[in-house]
Write a structure and sequence with these properties.
heterodimer, A: 386 residues, alpha+beta, 11-stranded mixed beta sheet, 13 strands, B: 389 residues, 7-stranded mixed beta sheet, 4-stranded antiparallel beta sheet, 15 strands, elongated
Chain lengths: 386, 389
């Protein structure tokens, strides 16, 4: 037990150096936490996806529509539980810097397929009844200070013209990973206007969402759907919601790779800072270590002393770093353009990664000084001038 | 009197390991700092090079990108009658009405699919964009379902080589040639005939309209005439260069915010590393400092000497970092551009301002990190410094 006391006392011998090192680690851990959080936020959609939902879209790419008539054909496939559909509306709300998903959906079925959007039943009933109404996520309501009955004016691009919608419902996210920044309104409302202004584009659906009763059959049902429309003018591509989301994440792969790379550089920098401190401390104590050896302390004791100090400093630093990460990330979320990340949480995996890398850094940083301390002959050590 | 520079530099050589570690720390930070700026600048440079100052592009006001813009033929005809549009030798306006769509192609190696822009162009497009040159194969035939692929697409996607067939819109499209556009965003596109694409997609509206002005300065007059026309209220003319630059803003801005945020934070780590090293340097040389002071060197000279030492340390780190970062220019990466929703290939690009800001950044780390230890050295009492062991 004496070793622990010695480790502690040793760490405090150069108070300023130890404190600086701890602050250095804390800052780096914070940067690490931020980067990892951005990476996980990117794939939030993948985490939030349900196993029993399939997405069917045009095979060429998501910007091409599918005919509304596909709906009945898909519904007839055995194993298909329910089908809903939606269109990406796009357009602008207030100005071009306001990002959030605006979708024209089938009001009757949309919320049945997405149980993670919690909406009071009376609000849902009103939404279903009124053609020009919309439902928005609670985060959106907060961001734009909207309440039930307020009007939202949108400027359409894919669907040209001005669109006025009345907020009739505000949904709450069920899970932490649920996106509460979406806006839903009636597909029928949009379609009616297309029928008048641009008949060629009426009756189009952006994508179908299919709920299946048995997630294990996702593969076969996907194939069945695609086979139905093979060689038609609008061939389909059906995949699980998870695969669909992963496709979006993968498309920004280069950036994610860069962020992963940088987060490892950060660990490298922590290692350099702690390593530097430990090397300095060990060098200064070369003579002491020789004295220890003369007194009969074993190599294990020396290892314990150096390793213990290194671990003590790096763990303290990372604990402090993790503590400040939370308020810090809240600050970052306020700086990035609104709506860039619908879901921005510190995942448990981030904490685990940070803690385990601190442990690893503590270990690695002590290797060199340990090797030096053990390798030095007693006589040379005693003769050493710091 | 000043302490000789040689003395300062040679001090750094006495504890090579610690000096090396500190230099490496600064180098890593500067490397990441420069890399992030180079990435953002690369995106911007590519898209700025895509547009020309002499061209005007017309899109729907509310549209966030080319793919969500729609211009019907009636509107396109109205626009073509506006004044100040350059004419060909046989008197036709130099205008290209372009349907822009996205198709999914499979990426080579990485697996998975990504979005590729397919642009339908009229024959005038090559007058509008002289930087686009055929590299291999031949140009598409206006009467056939044929495409030419940009160099970045040809090398990164499956089925985009000459002779390959791409299937979309219920038709087979043969790739008959590849083109190069001097590293602009067009390198990441596939081009075909405007009418062929409109026909295949059963559309009768363009996405955007690009035209050449008689003179660069005529934009103001053109825009004024454009705005006066009641039928064009929903559309907006923009200088082409500006239009494409805007498509880079979201992406470049995001990379910059994130990158600078992160590097500034962990530069604090490297600064602390420098502080620790310099404190140790001061502690090790207490007697030396006492001697220097006894010889008549002023406090200010001692302060300057230690600060210089720290500056040299960080500047070397900065140069090492930049040296390795400059090799990134050889790499070209490709990612989804949020502005256009399609794949964009770009290279890391170094600019004088990036070099300058990286070095300034390194120097700042050295100055801040070395300041407190230098002050301590300068404030040492001569007698007790000489007496310390």
């Amino acid at each position: 037990m004496k070793v622990f006391k010695l480790v502690f006392k040793n760490a405090l011998r150069h108070k300023l150096r130890t404190i600086l090192t701890i602050i250095g680690i804390a800052i780096a851990v914070m940067a690490f936490g931020l980067l990892r959080t951005v990476v996980t936020a990117w794939s939030a959609g993948v985490e939030a996806s349900a196993a029993n939902r399939l997405i069917t879209r045009q095979a060429v790419s998501f910007i091409f529509p599918l005919p509304y008539s596909y709906r009945d054909q898909i519904t007839k496939i055995p194993g298909v539980d329910a089908v809903t559909y939606a269109n990406w509306f796009g357009g602008t709300y207030i100005d071009k810097n306001q990002f959030f998903a605006r979708m024209a959906v089938d009001a009757e079925t949309n919320f049945d397929l997405y149980p993670e959007f919690l909406i009071p039943s009376d609000q849902l009933t009103t939404f279903k009844r009124e053609r020009n109404s919309c439902v928005i996520g609670s985060d959106l309501a907060q961001r734009y200070k909207l309440k039930i009955g307020d009007e939202m004016q949108m400027d359409g691009d894919i669907y040209p013209g001005k669109w006025n919608l009345v907020v009739r419902g505000i949904y709450q996210p069920r899970d932490k990973s649920t996106d509460a920044t979406q806006m839903f309104f009636h597909w029928q409302y949009v379609d009616e206007r297309m029928r008048q202004d641009n008949p060629g584009r009426a009756g189009n659906v952006g994508w179908y969402v299919i709920r299946i009763s048995d997630p294990a059959k996702a593969g076969t049902i996907s194939d069945q759907v695609d086979a139905l429309f093979k060689n038609s003018r609008a061939e389909t591509k059906t995949e699980t919601e998870r695969a669909f989301q992963q496709g979006f994440v993968a498309s920004a792969g280069a950036i994610i790779t860069a962020m992963n790379f940088i987060s490892f550089v950060i660990i490298g920098i922590i290692l350099l800072v702690v390593g530097n401190t430990m090397i300095m401390s060990a060098r200064e104590r070369t003579r002491e270590y020789a004295v220890f050896k003369t007194l009969g302390f074993s190599a294990g004791h020396l290892v314990g002393l150096i390793l213990g100090e290194s671990l003590f400093i790096s763990l303290l630093g990372s604990a402090l770093g993790l503590l400040v990460t939370y308020p810090f990330i809240a600050g970052f979320a306020a700086v990035v353009p609104k709506g860039f990340f619908p879901v921005f949480n510190i995942e448990p995996i981030t904490v685990v990664l940070a803690a385990s890398s601190a442990l690893l850094v503590g270990l690695l940083a002590s290797l060199f000084p340990i090797q030096r301390a053990l390798g030095t002959k007693i006589v040379d050590g005693l003769r050493h001038i710091g | 009197m000043k302490i000789p520079f040689k003395y300062i530099v040679r001090n750094l050589g006495t504890r090579k390991l610690t000096t090396g570690i500190t230099v490496l720390g600064v180098a890593l930070v500067v490397f990441v700092f420069a890399a992030v700026l180079m990435m953002a600048y690369g995106v911007q440079k590519t898209l700025v090079a895509t547009g020309s100052d002499e061209n005007v592009i017309i899109a729907r006001k509310a549209a966030n990108g080319e793919i969500s813009s729609i211009i019907d033929r009636v509107t396109a005809d109205i626009i073509m009658t506006l004044p100040n549009i350059a004419k060909t030798s046989d008197g036709r306006p130099i205008v290209s009405g372009e349907p822009v769509v996205i198709i999914n192609l499979e990426k080579i190696g990485a697996g998975g699919v990504s979005n590729v822009t397919v642009r339908g162009v009229s024959p005038q497009a090559f007058t509008l964009r002289p930087q686009v040159k055929l590299k291999a194969g031949r140009m598409f035939n206006t009467g056939a379902r044929e495409l030419v692929a940009g160099t970045a697409i040809e090398s990164r996607f499956v089925g985009a080589k000459i002779g390959d067939v791409v299937r979309f819109a219920g038709d087979n499209w043969t790739v008959v040639g590849t083109f190069d556009s001097d590293g602009s965003g067009f390198d990441s596109e596939m081009w075909g005939d405007s009418n062929q694409l409109l026909d295949a997609f059963n559309r009768n509206a363009f996405s955007t309209l690009t035209l050449r002005l008689e003179r660069r300065e005529a934009f103001h007059d053109f825009a004024a005439a454009f705005e006066k026309d009641q039928r064009l209220q929903q559309f907006e003319p923009k200088i082409e260069r500006r239009f494409f630059e805007e498509q880079s803003e979201l992406m470049a801005g995001f990379i910059r915010i994130l990158g600078i945020f992160v590097t500034v934070i962990f530069s604090a780590g490297a600064t602390i590393g420098a502080t620790i090293t310099m404190y140790a340097a001061v502690a090790n040389r207490t007697i030396e400092v006492g001697t220097l002071r006894a010889l008549g060197f002023r406090r200010r000279s001692v302060l300057a000497a230690f600060l210089t030492e720290s500056l040299v340390l960080s500047l070397v780190g900065g140069l090492v970092g930049l040296f390795f970062a400059s090799f990134l220019q050889l790499f070209s990466i490709s990612t989804l551009n949020f502005g256009s929703f399609s794949e964009l290939a770009f290279s890391f690009a170094l600019s004088p301002s990036i070099v300058l800001s990286s070095l300034l950044f390194a120097v700042a780390m050295g100055l801040i990190g070395g300041f407190l230890p230098s002050v301590r050295a300068a404030r040492l009492n001569i007698v007790s410094a000489l007496r310390s062991s």
